[in-house]
Write a structure and sequence with these properties.
The chain is 45% helix and 17% strand. The protein is built from 17 helices and 15 strands. With 451 residues, the protein is an alpha/beta fold. Helix 1 crosses helix 2, helix 7 crosses helix 8 and helix 10 packs across helix 12. It has a 7-stranded mixed β-sheet with strand order 9-8-7-10-11-15-14, with helices on both faces. It is globular, with a radius of gyration of 27 Å. The model has no long low-confidence stretch (mean pLDDT 96). It starts with 5 loop residues before the first strand and ends with a strand. S-adenosylmethionine binds next to helix 12 and strand 8. FE2/S2 (inorganic) cluster binds next to loops.
Amino acid sequence: MEPFRFHLFVCTQQKPEGVPSCPASGAFAVLDALDREIQARGLGSDVQLTTCGCMGLCDEGPMMVVYPAGIWYRRVQPSDVAEIVSTHLRDGKAVERLIWNDAPAMKAMAVEHGEKFRATMAARDRAGTLPDRLDQMIRGYMPSRCILTALELDIFTAAGNGANAEQIGAALHADPRAVAMLLNALVSLGLLSKSGDAYKNTPECARFFVQGSKDNHRNGLLHIANIWHRWSTLTDAVRRGGRVSIDRGGTPEWTQDFIAAMQRNAKDRAPHVVKSLGTSGVRRILDLGGGSGAYSIAFAKASPEIRCEILDTPEVVPLTAEYINQACVSTQVTLRAGDMLCDDFGSGYDLIMLNAICHMFSEQQNQDLFSRARRALAPHGRLAVQDFILNPDKTGPQHAALFSLNMLVATDSGASYSEPEYTRWMKAASFIEVCRIPLPGPSSLIVGQSS
Ligand SMILES: C[S@@+](CC[C@H](N)C(=O)[O-])C[C@H]1O[C@@H](n2cnc3c(N)ncnc32)[C@H](O)[C@@H]1O
Ligand code: FES
């Protein structure tokens, strides 16, 4: 049985640099073009497009196979895609010039490839060579560091639509030789293109990293660049059991980048949180550590009857005010500067939110927060915690386990916590009907109700 009229498999097997592979011959550009063309022609419900691993025909890539007939295409280029979609996927006639149907030759090549691959792996194993997976993990910081430095220096804005290393160096007050080295590395990573001695942004980088672009993420991403410096203290933090102070952080720029980063994450999650928690019976909300205010803004926009109060630090509240004003919800969202660890919360709230808060604090601080939140809720009010939640044995999901270390290097006593821990704290604070609500993406909600 075939649920779709056609099922396409495009090989996207990554191989080490210099080794023939479908991605090295342009498989990802073909995949993108196929996806766009299939949607543009309204064939999305007839055609299933799937990536697959190596078929052993790497020298002839990019390879793709179309089922149910089992038509193999080789050396497919983006320029072939319109014809494949209109002739084959719409009209049902295979594109003859791209077909490879010399079964004996294909089989011989695939078998030889498999034998060579197994022989190479066996030789590497005998020689005690470090597996590629481990080697790549160890060097994984290099591409990350290149892009973070490019963001810090604002290289992408300086490169714009075309500039040479001297011009970019002069604009950034940086050494032209070193700038050229960084620019070439960025080209190797597919983040810039180079023609003659001029570098320019790829469409993707022009969209996401250049100042003035509508979808510019640079400000939010600079927080990750800031945190990178803290991660370089991880070894000492593990030895000492706590964060190591470094000569960074706490400046107005740092706080601005931090809140921009919070906004970058929260604005996409907020509608899902509103949908999951609902607005029925919700009139007064306390948003503890509201940051950019994204969650309060989303609730305010969901119902004109809702009133939110954001409590955040004195340094952050003026930044929050800007986001609230931009969103035109200042009649519904009020701000309070203070310290959630010791301030009185007030009373009568229908919902208290702790979005991305508990990971900053210790177990005791969270237990205290939950108890004080419980006392500030109206009858049947809810406490909603949103965070990266660990499995009971704390070894995953990977995002939450790595984020725990982010808290080790960045806070005095923060960590990622597990669902049993959150549930225990909720129950200790007399919350009832405690449940977990998964959200799209890496975070979940844990919700408890006051009786
Ligand atoms: C990780 S951010 C989360 C922001 C927001 N809830 C969100 O999810 O986008 C933590 C927020 O808590 C605030 N914060 C940290 N410690 C606080 C404290 N003791 N009292 C009040 N706010 C605090 C920070 O300023 C920041 O805005
Ligand atoms: S990498 Fe695509 S067939 Fe081998």
